[in-house]
Amino acid sequence: MRRASLSPTARAPLALAPLALAPLAMLVAVAPVASGAQDAPRVGAGAVAAQVALGTLGTGVGFVGGGLMTRSAARRLGASADRASSAAYVGAWTGAALLTPVGPAVVGSRGAARGSYPQAVVGTLAGGAASWLLVTAGRHGAFGCRWCGPVRALVGVGAFVLPSVGATVAFDRSRHL
Residue 176 forms beta bridges with which residues? Predict the structure, then answer.
């Protein structure tokens, strides 16, 4: 059987693709675990799934809402259409970064357990960095082989979900009573 040959420009990003998860791995390794008198009860699989799902929903709502509100505010302040559009991107990414960790924080704070929203924001940023690396690797041909269809689909879903995964991991690691 003949192996597919990738061009040198496609091989380099493919070799770097596993590094896309490095920001999340670093977050898990260095994030402080909550140090309270009592540890919070463990978060179940259903709660983690809800945290990730709500965080992913928050990413989309925060992106669209932040972008629209920023563009509207910029236009009211007298910015040109081009300047308002540029400002809208900043508002969109900011809205996504601030709203993504709300779902993990709400679901993870049930009962007496509490966690750190700022740490969840840092987790969102780490997950966003991992997403950016996956997208960049894809744009440089890392997932361009003819058998990579399922891989491209998983990478697409992963790139959208990773900010929420980062927020969930960071928030749950900070939980305490």
Answer: 114
